[in-house]
Amino acid sequence: MSQNFLNYIGGQWVPARSGRTFWNHDPATGEALGEFPASALEDVDAAVAAAAKAFRGWRLTPAPKRAEIVFRAGEIIRARKEDLARAMTREMGKVLIEARGDVQEGIDMAYLAAGEGRRMYGVTTPSEMPDKWAMSVRAPVGVVGVITPWNFPFAIPSWKLMPALVAGNTAVFKPAGDTPEMAWHFTKILEEAGLPPGVLNLVFGSGAEVGNPMVEHPGIHVISFTGSTDVGLAIAGRGGALGKRISLEMGGKNAIIVMDDADLAHATDAIAWSAFGTTGQRCTACSRVLVHGRVHDELADRVTAKAKQLKLGSGLEPTTDVGPLVNRSQVEKVHAYVEIGAKEGTLAAGGGPARDGALAKGHFYRPTVFRDVPAGARIAVEEIFGPVLAMVKVESLEQAIEINNASRYGLSAAIFTRDVKSAFAAMRDLETGIVYVNHGTTGAETHLPFGGTRGTGNGHREAGHTMLDPFTEWKSIYVDFSGRLQRAQIDNA
Ligand code: NAD
C-alpha cells in the first residue's frame, strides 16, 4: 500500500509549496511505494530560514546534550532495524542482509558521533607572551547542506548529518529521488529522539530543483555531497565560486590485485562479494581485478563459475544473492557498457538483463564477468556502477600498482597475497583513500576515515576521527591577563 510523505521544515511536516509530487518505486516489482513532495527554490528558502533560526539556539546547546539526542536516535534505529532494512530493500533493491548492514552503519555512526559530544577536543598551547593563554576550539559552521545518493540511503545521511548536528550545525537535507522513504525514516527518528524544530530540515526533490538551489543559496555555508564525479565537480565549481566549503565523496573504479601466491578460493569469494554485492552499486565495489598472468585463467574460471551460481531475485527473498539495479536507466547504462566490453574483452558470464518469470517487472541484470580485458579498455577504466567485472592480466605488483594509480578515481583498492613484502609495498604505494589486504574492496567501518583521492574526492574524509572536519571551523582564542599592552613578535623578540 502506498503512502503520502511530506517535507520536514521548521519542525512541521509540509507539502511542497507548489503542491507538486513524485513517486518512488520498488525496483524489483515496479510497484509504486509512496508519493513525495517535488520541491523547488521556495521550499529550500523556507528550510534554510528555519535552519538559520534554529542555529541560534542549537549552537548554544551544550555539545553533550546535542549528542544525547543523536545517541537516542541510535537506540531507536536499533529497535527498528529490521523494519528499516525491509523498507530499504523494497525501495532500492539491495538484499536484506546488506540492507541490515546499511542500517547498522547508522547505528554505529550514531554511537560514534554521540561520543564526540563529550570529546570534540580542541588544543591548548603556551603563548609566547607572559600572562597570556592560547587555545583553539572547534566551532560549528552554520547551516549545512547535505545532498546524498540512493545506494546507501541510511548510512550516508548518518555519516554526514550525525557529526554535523553534534558539532552544533543545523542542516538542510536533500536525499536522492530514488530513495526518499529512507530519508523520511531517518528524519522522523531524529524528530522522535528530541531534535528541536528547524535543526534538521528535509526537502525532497530533484538535483536541479532542490540540490542546485542549495548549492547556490547564500544561507548555506557548507555542502556535503556524495554522488557521481561529474555532478560533484560541477557543484564544487559553483559552490566554490561562492566561497563555500564543498566536501565531496564521488565515484570509484576499485581494483583488487591478486598475486600469484594468493589463496585463490578466498580471493574468489571476496571478488564476488565486492563486485556483485549491492548489484555492483557500491562506490567501493570492485569492478576490475588486476591478476597476475600466472593465475589469471584459474581465477577467471573460479570467478566465472561463482558469478553464474548467483541467484537473482527480490532482495526480500532469503535465497536471493543479487537484487535488482535501482532503476531502468541504470539497466540501460550497464548494458551499454557491456556492449562496449564485448568488443574489448572476452565475455565469460552474464552479459544482459534477466527478465524470466518473477524477474519480468524488475530491473535485473545478470552478474557479468569479462576476462582478458586490456588495462586501458573502457570497461576497465570507467565507473559502470553495476554488476560488471573486468579481469585484467598483469605481470608484476609494480605494474598492478601503476594501473591502479593511473585511474581517474582513488577510493578503495585491495591486494591478495601471502607475501608480507608485497602486502606492505601495496599498503605504501596504492594511492587510494582505503586499502585492504586479503579482503575485498568493500566493508569500511565507521570509526575509520572514509573517502578517496583524485576524482573520488577533494581532500575531505567522512566518519572516523575526521568526522567533524567538514562541519567545523577552527577558532584560535588568545586571553591576555597581563593587564597591559603586549605585542606579539615585537615585545619578546
Ligand atoms: P548523482 O550524482 O546522480 O546524484 C547524487 C545526488 O546529487 C542526488 O541527491 C541528486 O539528486 C543530486 N544532484 C544531481 N544533480 C545535482 C545538481 N545539479 N545540483 C545539486 N545536486 C544534484 O549520483 P547517484 O546516481 O545518486 O549515485 C551514484 C554515484 O554516487 C556513483 O558515482 C557512486 O560512486 C557515488 N557514490 C560515492 C560514494 C563515496 O563515498 N565516494 C558513496 C556512494 C555513492
Automatic annotation (TrEMBL):
SUPFAM superfamilies in UniProt: ALDH-like (SSF53720)
Keywords: NAD, Oxidoreductase
Enzyme class: oxidoreductase
Pfam families with a match to the protein in the record: Aldedh
UniProt key word Ribosomal protein: no
E.C. designation(s): 1.2.1.3
Active site: E249
Limits of the Aldehyde dehydrogenase domain: 13-477
Protein origin, superkingdom: Bacteria
PROSITE patterns reported in the protein's UniProt record: ALDEHYDE_DEHYDR_CYS, ALDEHYDE_DEHYDR_GLU
UniProt record similarity statement: Belongs to the aldehyde dehydrogenase family.
Quaternary assembly: Homotetramer.
Record-given protein name: aldehyde dehydrogenase (NAD(+))
Origin species: Eiseniibacteriota bacterium
